[in-house]
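[Q] Does anyone have a clean structure-token version of this?
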Amino acid sequence: MQLIKPDTNIDFVGKRTIALVVSLLLIAVGIVSLISQGGPNYGIDFAGGTLVQVRFTEPTGATAIKKALEGMGAGSLVVQQFGDDENEFMIRMENSSSELKGLALDVRNHLTATYGVDKVDVRRTEMVGPQVGSDLRMKGLKAIFYAMLGILVYISWRFEFRFAVGAIVALIHDVVITLGVFSLFGKEIDLPIIAAFLAIIGYSLNDTIIVYDRIRENVGRYNKESFAFIVNRSINDTLSRTMLTSGTTLLVVMSLFVLGGGVIHHFAFAMLIGVLVGTYSSIFVASPILIFWEQRKAKQS
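[A] Here you go.
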């Protein structure tokens, strides 16, 4: 199925400077947001603490819930609406220790004292110690690092080292921008989001490999043309496939984001941003880096 005519020749390479400015701007905004907030907003999986999911039979708000729980001595409280139900909330507490084993009952008692009996339903309680959270955070970072290291080795073996560098820079670009968007929107980073980052890396790499394969084929086909022309021709050759793949993936991810509910909401949001940025980077980041590498090599020789 061809969405794009075979003779289409959009000048993607000619817009690489504009794309570079856009990428740097997005990365800078994300980094500034991360610095201003003291780093990523880690969820309970990584930061440690206690999470309680509650549902009320009557309308209420975060401020009223905090006031009802003031006497618990559970440390700092964060109350957020959960999912599509306006009466369902997530209560996050900093404290996490063996002394809080009866936390669900304690939360219920304090809330029923304010809202009344049978007006509150404690649906879920999770507890993660700070040491466990720190360990999980480190393992998550290692998983992303080793994935990128493996990709560097694989692409260096299958193509050339310059192709591997372009792919890795594009993957770092995707993860950093997605992380920055999470920071801007105040969304938490937890284990499902690490899984989303790894999925984004895989998706973006797949797009990049398709373009790289076509570049390698076209080097022999257009050996009298400049390398910039070959790269641009290759991007146009694979554009129909890129649009089909990205379009169908976005439909699925958008469905999960809109209809999947609160549990999968952050994962779907990460994938939504990742697919968009991954498609962009395979065209405007990974491929132009090859041109820069070739131009630098020509100047040195």
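[Q] Thanks! Anything notable?
[A] The chain has a mean pLDDT of 81.
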